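Incident log, support desk, overnight shift.

02:14 A customer reports that sequence design results differ from what the structure should imply. Their input is reproduced verbatim below. On-call engineer (initials T.W.) acknowledged and began investigating.
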């Protein structure tokens, strides 16, 4: 016969284990439910961004475009569009999906948050250009409207992100699309870059690798089926036609608007001096801060003193201090060369 105390003990143990199992089961199911809800919201917000982008560029959206943009299969894209219609965020007209006013407002809110984060990562961190977009996508779904306004206030309520895209206002206002594709710019015409498309990553990396950035003045000097050759910053740059299609430019009607009197610090010969006119807009974040911390600001006189055995870095006299700067940083520094400064040093 089983001792009643032992039976009670085992009964309590079994009851506790069952209770623990049920509690952990409910916790797991709640966690799964919350994860599913969050995942659905992220897909909804990404779809709204895609639909607004299509509307902004006067192109139509489709199940296929949603599928490709969100990297989901066609059936899931179709179910997502049905969900958006149920939420009254879109309406279907002649097989075209149009955002409702509620859908436009929601999309602009997410786009505002995304572009504020992109600017923050560009100006306040050391992340590379390719990382700005990816990290902004991670943050946009977890940032409240109030948090976004604190971020905007911290950065002085900016109007444009680092790629040249307008940041929607808190009231949901955004200027209409302007400019033309670099791929359509005629040979010998002058223009200023106003926007770089940051997707897909491979194309954006090509543009960044070529040194292109918003604000840069360029001229198309040659065109072939394989390459478009640009003249910019006294250099020749080659990019593919598909990359050029991801660049928006504003036409410069007068050659005088294009002509640049600035040179680059990298073009100073040993013994030559120049006065800093600006730091390139392509230099942002911690890298820009480091250059300025060296005393490199507009008006600073810099003299190239000596070159390392490998040719890079070069030592420059900056405000009486000898500072080595590598060419990748020196190329961001615009100068005006001073005449008759070379004393023949090698």
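02:41 Re-run completed on a clean worker. Output:
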């Amino acid at each position: 016969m089983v001792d009643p105390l032992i039976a009670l003990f085992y009964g309590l143990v079994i009851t506790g284990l069952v209770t623990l199992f049920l509690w952990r089961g409910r916790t797991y199911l709640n966690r799964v439910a919350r994860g599913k809800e969050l995942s659905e919201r992220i897909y909804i917000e990404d779809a709204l961004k895609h639909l607004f982008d299509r509307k902004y560029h006067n192109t139509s959206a489709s199940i296929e475009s949603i599928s490709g943009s969100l990297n989901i299969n066609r059936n899931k894209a179709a179910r997502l569009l049905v969900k958006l219609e149920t939420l009254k965020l879109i309406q279907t007209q002649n097989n075209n999906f149009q955002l409702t006013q509620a859908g436009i407002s929601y999309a602009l809110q997410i786009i505002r948050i995304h572009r504020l984060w992109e600017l923050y990562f560009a100006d306040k961190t050391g992340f590379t250009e390719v990382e700005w977009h990816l990290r902004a996508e991670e943050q946009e779904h977890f940032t409240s409207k109030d948090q976004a306004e604190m971020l905007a206030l911290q950065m002085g309520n900016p109007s444009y992100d680092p790629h040249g895209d307008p940041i929607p206002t808190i009231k949901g206002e955004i200027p209409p699309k302007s400019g033309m594709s670099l791929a359509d710019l005629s040979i010998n015409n002058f223009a200023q870059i106003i926007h770089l498309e940051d997707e897909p990553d491979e194309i954006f990396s090509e543009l960044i690798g070529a040194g292109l950035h918003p604000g840069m003045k360029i001229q198309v000097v040659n065109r072939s089926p394989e390459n478009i050759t640009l003249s910019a910053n006294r250099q020749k740059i080659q990019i593919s036609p598909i990359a050029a299609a991801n660049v928006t430019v504003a036409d410069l009607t007068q050659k005088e608007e294009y002509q640049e009197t600035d040179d680059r610090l990298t073009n100073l010969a040993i013994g030559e001096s120049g006065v800093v006119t600006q730091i390139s807009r392509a230099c942002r974040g911690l890298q820009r801060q480091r250059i300025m911390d060296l005393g490199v600001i507009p008006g600073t006189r810099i003299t190239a003193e000596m070159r390392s055995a490998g040719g890079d870095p070069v030592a420059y006299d900056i405000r009486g201090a000898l500072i080595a700067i590598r060419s990748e940083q020196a190329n961001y520094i615009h100068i005006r060369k001073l005449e008759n400064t070379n004393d023949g040093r090698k």
